[in-house]
From TrEMBL:
The keyword Zinc-finger does not apply. InterPro entries: AAA+_ATPase (IPR003593), ABC_transporter-like_ATP-bd (IPR003439), ABC_transporter-like_CS (IPR017871), ABC_Transporter_VariousFunc (IPR051782), P-loop_NTPase (IPR027417). SUPFAM superfamilies: P-loop containing nucleoside triphosphate hydrolases (SSF52540). It comes from Actinacidiphila glaucinigra. It comes from the Bacteria. PANTHER family: ABC TRANSPORTER ATP-BINDING PROTEIN ALBC-RELATED. Residues 8-233 form the ABC transporter domain. One of its GO terms (molecular function) is ATP hydrolysis activity. It holds the Pfam family ABC_tran. This is ABC-2 type transport system ATP-binding protein.
Length: 302
């Protein structure tokens, strides 16, 4: 089978912080094909930031393998851009000087126009000092650095959390345009799943440090159905979540056989329904679609 190259590939990936008692990530195996826009979701403490920092080469895994842009995260550093949750920037610099620094650190690949479009899109002036910026303005500058770098892989840790709705819309559009124009892979963590619907074409859902769902969003949605009816027996189907409703019972299932002929209304769930059902039911069996399943572990070792 001819498969698209992987932007990120993990096998048996585990992480335990030096002072932590427990594993933060445990036996994570997944593959993110290049060129996708991947939503990274999961409850607080699931390990999303840790996974992004590992992929950015800022942390070393304690177990397993992680391959980024076909090499080690450390070797891929010049080819990726990482925007951390707290958006670290030099507070004494102006916005213009920050972008100049971005240009100096990324010779040969820096895109000043792209960086300026993002940085100055909402009236921010070049002479403004970073230390005097609001949280949302800092996010703009951090995203401007990331997009100016023309990275192959963007790792964005809750980038939209402190942006106003118009800025979110504008910057989401800028990210999607960049991804479409340059084939950039984007991993974007967020708690606002509804906002990622229609933006992301790939999903990675972590729960308690483990991969719960991974794959193309269309494939994951197609692997689930919402059944609503009065019967109580869901037959051969794997039930992720079931609850009563006005008309009887509704269940999110992974079909294990024919759905026709049952006394059910059958619907495809939305991405938000799929994610929320799995967040509420961490015991549901994990599912990786074919394109999210890595090659054999030894083949991805670096
Ligand atoms: N430097 C650290 N040392 C020890 N434990 C840490 C460290 N950083 C994170 N942790 C722990 O790792 C676990 C996962 O944290 P992480 O920030 O990766 O989760 P998250 O999914 O990004 O959470 P959130 O949605 O709240 O941002 C948490 O239990 C956290 O306390």
């Amino acid at each position: 089978m001819n498969r698209q190259e992987a932007a990120v590939e993990a096998a048996g990936l585990g992480m335990r912080y030096a002072w932590g008692r427990d594993h933060v990530l445990r036996d994570c195996t997944f593959r993110l094909p290049a060129g996708r826009i991947c939503a990274l979701v999961g409850p607080n403490g699931a390990g999303k930031s840790t996974l992004l920092a590992l992929a950015a080469g800022l942390l070393r895994p304690t177990e397993g393998q992680l391959r980024v842009c076909g090499t080690t995260p450390g070797a891929a550093r010049t080819r990726l851009a990482y925007v951390a949750q707290d958006k670290p920037l030099h507070p004494q610099l102006t916005v213009a000087a920050t972008l100049r620094l971005g240009a100096e650190l990324n010779p040969g690949r820096w895109d000043q126009d792209a960086a300026e479009r993002v940085a100055f899109g909402s009236g921010l002036t070049p002479g403004a000092r970073v230390r005097a910026l609001s949280g949302g303005q800092r996010t703009r500058v951090a995203l401007a650095l990331a997009l100016g770098k023309r990275a192959e892989l963007l790792l964005l840790d809750e980038p939209m959390a402190d942006l106003d709705p118009l800025s979110r819309h504008e910057l989401t559009g800028a990210l999607m345009a960049t991804a479409a124009e340059h084939g950039t892979t984007v991993v974007i963590s967020s708690h606002v799943v509804a906002e990622l619907d229609g933006v992301c074409d790939h999903l990675l859902l972590l729960g308690q440090g483990r991969v719960r769902l991974a794959g193309d969003t269309d494939d994951l949605l197609a692997a689930h159905r919402l059944l609503t009816g009065t019967g109580a027996d869901f037959g051969p189907h794997t039930v992720v979540e079931e609850h009563p409703n006005g008309r009887g019972r509704t269940a999110l299932v992974r079909p294990g056989g024919a759905l026709e002929g049952g006394d059910w209304l059958v619907e495809e769930p939305t991405l938000e329904e799929l994610v929320l059902a799995h967040l509420r039911n961490p015991g549901a069996p994990a599912l990786l679609t074919a394109d999210a399943t890595p090659a054999r572990r030894e083949e991805i070792a670096v």
